[in-house]
UniProtKB/TrEMBL annotation:
<protein>
    <recommendedName>
        <fullName>Transposase</fullName>
    </recommendedName>
</protein>
Length: 133
């Protein structure tokens, strides 16, 4: 099996391992060879991907999605209160447009739903509009 070819094909839109296995089976039958079962095909490709540290490619169209999360899975940062000069715990919200890698980040004092919604609204304002998802 040509795993380099399989990996390159997977980077194309609408190409799946199931489709590539089907093509592989047809090629084997044309050449009078016994093809691997789908499960074995997946196992062999998985070993290839692990060996070469290949990663899953997620295709995104421009404007399709904004990826968001709290940075560091909720780990905290600190901001200085202007009035008291006291260190105050803060949480960093991050939003990224995957195609352009344009990002927005802000510190909030809470990870509650209102902070989540407000941070989203400010991110969309920063990006100049909303995404499809």
């Amino acid at each position: 099996m040509n795993f380099d070819y399989i990996h390159e094909e997977l980077a194309k839109p609408n190409v799946t391992l199931s489709l590539l296995h089907h093509e592989y089976e047809a090629e084997c039958r044309t050449n009078q060879k016994n093809p691997y079962s789908y499960r074995s095909f997946l196992r062999h490709y998985s070993k290839y991907a692990d060996k070469y540290k290949a990663t899953l490619r997620i295709r995104r169209e421009p404007g399709e999605i904004m990826e968001v999360d709290w940075a560091g899975a909720g780990s905290t940062a600190f901001v200085i209160d202007r009035d008291t000069r006291e260190k105050v715990k803060a949480y960093v919200f991050v939003a990224t447009l995957p195609c352009s890698q344009l990002s927005y980040a802000e510190a909030t004092l809470s990870m509650d739903s209102q902070s989540w919604i407000n941070a989203h609204n400010r991110a969309y304002k920063y990006f100049g509009g909303s995404t499809q998802l």
